[in-house]
Amino acid sequence: MIALLAAELNRLRSRRITLVTLLVVVLGAGLFQFAVNSAVTPPSAAEAAQGRAQYEEALRDYEQNKEEYAQGQQECLDMGVSPEECDPAPKLEWFVTQATPFAEIAPVALTFATLIAGLGAFLIAASFIGAEYTTGSISNWLTFIPQRARVFVAKALAVVLGAGLVGTVILGGTLAAAAALTTAHGGEVTKGAAVTASAARGVGLVVAFALISFGLTLLARHTAAAIGVLVAYGLLNIVLEILYNFLPALQRVKRFLPDMNLQAFLNKGHTYQNYYPGVGSAEDTGRVVERTLSVTHGGLYWLALTAVTLVVALLVFRRRDVV
Amino acid sequence: MTELIQMHRSVPPGVEYAVETSGLRKTYRSRKGRQVAVAGLDLKVPSGGVHGFLGPNGSGKTTTIRMLLGLITADSGNMRVFNREMPAALPSVIARIGAIVEQPRFFPAFSGRKNLALLAQGIGVPTAQVGAVLDEVGLGDRGRDKFRTYSLGMKQRLAIAGTLLKNPDLLILDEPTNGLDPAGIHEIRATMRGLADRGKTVLVSSHILSEVQQVADTVSIIGRGRLLAEGPVSQILAASGGESVRVGIANPEQAAQVLAGAGYRVVPLPDRSLQVTKVGAPLYPAEVTRVLAQQGLFVSELTPARADLESVFLELTAENHLGAPGGGPAPTGETAVERGPA
Q1: Closest Cβ opposite residue A143 in set B72, B101, B107
Q2: Which of A62, A209, A251, A263 could connect to A118 by a Cys-Cys bridge, CB 3.0–4.6 Å?
Q3: Do B122 and A322 touch (CB under 8 A)?
Q4: Has the ipTM of the complex gone over 0.90?
Q5: Could you please report the per-residue DSSP string of A75-119?
């Protein structure tokens, strides 16, 4: 098994598409650090003065039109939105942007890094397996190593190790860069343990992305099919967003969507809102209901999704004729 | 021809078989219903030597090889390789089997050397051996070139080099000379003969019969997924009658009836000529023309020919209606092949 795994890893790292995809992922993650840098940079004195002037003007406007603001606040509260979010009184922080704390920017950076690394791992895994079918070399390979379960496990392990390495490097690098930028701008790195745990979960998600791609490609026997599933999911999300307006009850499916569960697992829980429109009268403008997905729900969801894909792929791979 | 088949179906004493199948069957689902690819094939490949596995396109050769290698599953029947039950024992005997199924299949963006190194690494063979097998097939100086830049002949040679990584006792080559130039064909033939002379068993499937006749010790001829004849090449040629004449005539149907009535064996050929043989007695071409002329039939061409595998093959497949374009796998329920004279 070690020899088989070594051969698979050798092939994985020798592929040009692996190197190109990794370069794009590293570049994307690197470019995002510009946004992180901008977020953790405190405002200059001139920016602070300008913001303060704008705040004072907004405050004057609020004092002069308090009744109109109050009416808007009531409509907001009627929709079920929290009092804090409905409070119309201008706040200084709206106008004088403060440097974003590390504890806030790190999860955003990690989410982006997980998505881009996961997407990269998905493409690499799909191409890694798809190429064997499009070139027909899987047939040649199986005439050398006919034990299909062993072949399957070796390929899956290669994908796990490859994706794990990519995830660790990208998410670890993202976290380290965010911490370095925060410190460089005089900020403080807080909640380090929680953020590191989130990054570790992110690596797990990158591996899950790759394994699901591996399973889908084995089932479909073509790289394009696995990528097609990804594109189809993107389209499904757009369609669902439209359908939510006509069938509000459909919003219940949100808890079963991969992206919702990804955020729940990565960010240790995810709160989202469902909007249910009113009956049409002026008084009833609808309501917003907050829902929360737990980290456990997100974790189990991704674990089950990965496991089911792999088991089905293994069963099919073991039995299917290779021509 | 029934006698021919039966003669060679008897098992010579003391012969060991590298490959044996009995009642092997495989069907595929298609839009037209179930298609029979292999219909109860009984195959015996003696250990040592080159064994030609012959049949028209679509007769089930590649399907049989794929079943032997565990790439596809048989619907029913038994297979044994080196006296071990297949596919259950495949993992334990695969190290003794080298195989190329249809076209050589490698990663086009990798070099020949890299492709073989991956295979060697996968089966735990030292990668240092890659250079040796590349040299053995004459690809030593092109090993670092990408597979996609190879000619068809080079691809075939690379595939053979891959099989040699294992130093196999049984080499299965599926149409290995397809697309090769005469020099490439000669090389492959020499490689097969060399391996057989070193005590290996080479099972080579082909529909290019002249190639096989030059190198094979024994052959099996199949049609529509069934065995039509098998045995040593020399015996098959002798049993087919040895000599024959090819008769060109304006009315081949009537001529065939006349000659059959006079005790000749007649096989219509695709170009509307007739292949005429006489079993158990010498064949005199002048006698053939006399018999026909007595019935007012005059030959336009009369070509004496010694029997070769091609004529035996054509005879067998024509008798079994396999030479026509529809001679591929038969749908379920249809009598795929009937042995014996037409």
Answers
A1: B101
A2: A209
A3: no
A4: no
A5: HHHHTT--HHHH--S--HHHHSPPPPPHHHHHHHHHHHHHHHHHH
- Best mutation target, A20, A143, A151, to test chain B (most B CBs within 10 A): A143
CA gap B312, B322 in Å, rounded: 13
Angle made by CA atoms B198, B210, B320, in degrees to the nearest 5: 115
Across the interface, whether the CB atoms of B107 and A135 are under 8 A apart is answered yes
A107-158 confidence digits (pLDDT tens): 999 999 999 999 999 999 999 999 999 998 998 899 899 999 999 999 999 9
Q: Could you tell me which chain A residue has the CA closest to the CA of B127? A: A7
Residues of A in contact with B112 (CB under 8 A): none
CA nearest A159: which of A200, A133, A131, A124? A124
**Which pTM does this prediction carry?**
0.77
Residue from the list B101, B109, B162 with its beta carbon closest to the beta carbon of A16: B109
Asked whether the beta carbons of A304 and A312 are under 8 A apart, the reply is no
Quote the Cα angle for B206-B207-B209, to 5°: 95
CB A266 within 8 A of CB A298: yes
* Packed helices A148-184 and A16-40: angle between N→C axes, nearest 10 degrees: 30
- Smallest CA–CA distance, residue B25 to chain A, in Å, is 14
Token pair of B18 as six digits: 């590298």
Nearest to A7 among B109, B110, B121 (CB): B121
**Residue contact A322–B72, C-beta within 8 A:** yes
Residues in A closer than 8 angstroms to B95, CB to CB, are: none
pLDDT digits (tens, 9 = 90+) for A87-113: 888 888 788 878 888 888 889 999 999
Band of the pLDDT at A299, cuts 50, 70, 90?
Answer: very high
User: What are the backbone dihedrals phi and psi of residue B90, each rounded to the nearest 5 degrees, phi first?
Assistant: -55, -45
Pull the structure tokens for residue A306.
Answer: 């990965």
Tell me the HSE value of A9 on the side-chain side, using a 13 A CA sphere: 14
Which residue, B230, B98, B257, is CA-closest to B164? Answer: B98
Picking from B105, B114, B121, the nearest residue to A140 by CB comes out as B105
- What residue ranges in chain A does DSSP mark as E strands? 270-276, 287-293
The residues spanned by each domain of chain A are 2-40+100-319, 45-95
Report CA Rg, chain B: 22
For chains A and B, what is the number of CB pairs under 8 angstroms? Answer: 78
Which residue of B71, B110, B121 is in closest CB contact with A322? B71
- What is the SS3 assignment for B116-135? HHHHHHHHCCCCHHHHHHHH
